[in-house]
Amino acid sequence: MDPHLLRTYVTVVRLASFSEAARDLGYTQSAVSQHIAALESDLGLPLLTRRPVAPTPAGERLLEHAGALLLRLDAARADLERFTAAPRTTLDVAASPLALTARTVAALPATGVTLHALPRERVPVAVATGEADAGLVDGIAAPSDPLRLPDVAPLSATAVAEEPLAVVLPDHHPLAGRPGLRLDDLVDARWLDAPAAGVPLDRLRAVHGGPAGRGFRPGLRYDGTDTRTLAVLAAAGRGLALLPLSAAQGVPGATAVSLVAPRLVHRTELLVPAGAHPEATGPVAEFAGRLKR
Amino acid sequence: MDPHLLRTYVTVVRLASFSEAARDLGYTQSAVSQHIAALESDLGLPLLTRRPVAPTPAGERLLEHAGALLLRLDAARADLERFTAAPRTTLDVAASPLALTARTVAALPATGVTLHALPRERVPVAVATGEADAGLVDGIAAPSDPLRLPDVAPLSATAVAEEPLAVVLPDHHPLAGRPGLRLDDLVDARWLDAPAAGVPLDRLRAVHGGPAGRGFRPGLRYDGTDTRTLAVLAAAGRGLALLPLSAAQGVPGATAVSLVAPRLVHRTELLVPAGAHPEATGPVAEFAGRLKR
DNA sequence: GGAGCGACATAAGCGTCCGTGATGGCGAGT
DNA sequence: ACTCGCCATCACGGACGCTTATGTCGCTCC
Predict the structure, then answer these.
(1) Which Gene Ontology molecular-function terms are recorded (chains A, B) (predicted)?
(2) What are the domain boundaries of chain B?
(3) Could you say which nucleotides of strand C lie within 7 A of any protein CB atom?
(4) Taking CB atoms and an 8 Å limit, are B72 and A65 in contact across chains?
């Protein structure tokens, strides 16, 4: 299970072709074929169907492991390179859409900043692999419980903002008048599925813990990142949305009712490589310092 | 960053010797020396001091990454081997001490069971690497929030028991009469540090979120796994202990007061490899089925 | 239905890299 | 100062991996 072999394996699966993968990796087709053969003989089972080229069930499993492994390998290399690299003068920040608020943006240094807008799950990856010097991720969690992030590498997370959650309903919705809502009241409702702009529904499903049969039916799916659009969709009755309170307010036709049970908050966290090389100075420290104040 | 090189690297660090590592790995000393040299030249910085052999700061970082990487590699191999291996007839269960209760033990099949008592953090590792077919881990978390486990491999976790938490105090303690306790009332108290038997203090520290200055000073450290002993120590005034309510009761001289804030529970979860090869039958399924009932 | 073509498998050749054994340098203990 | 233990370096032999070339299979086109 040489990383080289794994790298070609994932490339072959991604491109669904040995020859394409060979071109992509700068190998000959023969080499790719031998790589796959080596993996299959090492593990003792077929990983791919040929014609069409697609992973077998075992291959699917390997794909998960290989992805994590290669990611971690990149992260390790990036982490070690920080020891030798020249101190950064510019700052690359990876951020999920909802993590960018007036407050967090204000903390960015005036110059030399590149902002990478990424989906939530890519932010830790970007920081780990060194594509970004710091990350801002948002998500929901129990109060004073850190966000649940994939641990691709040792990262240190510190909360920089915390806000109540609100359910966005059309004004005329029967529940719109309530002072607060319980999630249990809403299990049978139709929800907007907006992984990029809103709060991910699968997280709610996990919190609720109920069987897959009931609860949190996705309705319209929205893959944009604009919260205002999401609120507009909710106002139009296309489904409910869950947003941080401040983002949920101020849209005509939409009412935001805060969520009271389960006790969850929308939190934004700053992500930096852990065990930080004592960078008491530099753009990252400057940014972190301003955020904590 | 070949895994072979990483494996030699961690071995060298563990044994603090090139020659010992060579013997351990079945290489010559020369090969080990070259492995380390290759790593160092690849990464462009020294990883070890020689005489004595010890990791540099950069080497320490690499060690973390290498450990995770090699673990994940073993997990991947073990996971893939499940596809080819013969269906299990016996059952190996890894369990943290507090996860073993009358209820969980009763769910074990009558015969063919090997029980591995492991510290909490080793349980997921054992399941991932195939040393165990299933795991039982306990820990504390917010209600209806999964336990926070290191993700060495895709594992599926399902709650099998949940219990309130209790603080164990000497009978004569000023707070012993209270109906319930808040953690905030106890930040300045002295705690028993019992990572194996009790609830880990560092988790509390994280939940409390306070600066390292205040809070949760460890007193006596107890590395045994017996909760009764822990309660006896608490009764003797050597420090407070946090235990699941049932384990905290019934020790003369000790009073158990349940914890009311923050809202945390002691939960035990069953761990099995995720994406399970549809084992509707077999010892693992039998065990899981009995636990869920 | 046969020829052609695209795509993966297999075979042979060759360079490179890896591990061995021998030797050298260096520090610590006697 | 000598010696022993330990790591570094060197030179060599073999194995492994990649390339070129060729084989085989399946699909498509006429």
Answers:
(1) DNA-binding transcription factor activity; transcription cis-regulatory region binding
(2) 3-84, 91-160+267-292, 162-264
(3) 7-11, 18-22, 27-28
(4) yes
